[in-house]
């Protein structure tokens, strides 16, 4: 099995269509350890461009985006390194989605992980692109449901429109919070 296929099999299981919200987006030290043990050694080469060839196929681009965007959040949870690969993840995603249209060869759940690098960006242009891409999944009931990926794309964009950044990252990145950001963060459910 190729490294890309092994990574996709680990992340998605037997196919690319099963939405595993609790596994992917809830802190779980066991899952973080499995990410680290199985694929942690691939992150630095991916960030340095050594795995750029993966992006030639839809599945390879998906695996590379996962490695650059999702895995750092598991490997380096709560540290600045969790976001260090974001620019490279957006570069790969931009090529895969806008130039190569690899997303169209993937099922909706897999597409989400090509779109998430834009949702994680703190530039409004990235957020606008994220919302447009996720809105393309409107026909899929899993993603269109309240609290689904489309809803989250809009919520992320609203935070960037309001603050120009994600206030929940401030403490991790050593950025001082404004009084308005502190008031927002004090609300139940603030942040992502």
Automatic annotation (TrEMBL):
InterPro entries reported for this sequence: DUF924 (IPR010323), TPR-like_helical_dom_sf (IPR011990)
Pfam families (UniProt xref): DUF924 (PF06041)
Official protein name in the record: DUF924 domain-containing protein
Provenance organism: Roseicella frigidaeris
């Amino acid at each position: 099995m190729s490294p890309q296929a092994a990574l996709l099999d680990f992340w998605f299981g037997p196919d690319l269509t099963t939405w595993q919200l609790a596994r992917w987006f809830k802190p779980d030290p066991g899952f973080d350890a499995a990410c680290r043990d199985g694929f942690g050694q691939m992150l630095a080469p991916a960030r340095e461009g050594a795995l750029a060839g993966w992006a030639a196929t839809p599945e390879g681009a998906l695996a590379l985006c996962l490695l650059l965007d999702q895995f750092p959040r598991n490997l380096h949870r709560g540290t600045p390194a969790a976001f260090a690969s974001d620019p490279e993840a957006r570069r790969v995603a931009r090529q895969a989605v806008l130039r190569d249209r690899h997303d169209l060869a993937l099922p909706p759940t897999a597409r989400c992980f090509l779109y998430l690098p834009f949702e994680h960006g703190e530039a409004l242009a990235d957020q606008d692109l994220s919302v447009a891409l996720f809105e393309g999944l409107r026909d899929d009931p899993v993603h269109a449901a309240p609290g689904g990926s489309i809803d989250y794309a809009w919520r992320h964009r609203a935070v960037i429109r309001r603050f120009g950044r994600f206030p929940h990252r401030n403490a991790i990145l050593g950025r001082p919070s404004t009084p308005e950001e502190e008031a927002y963060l004090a609300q139940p459910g603030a942040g992502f």
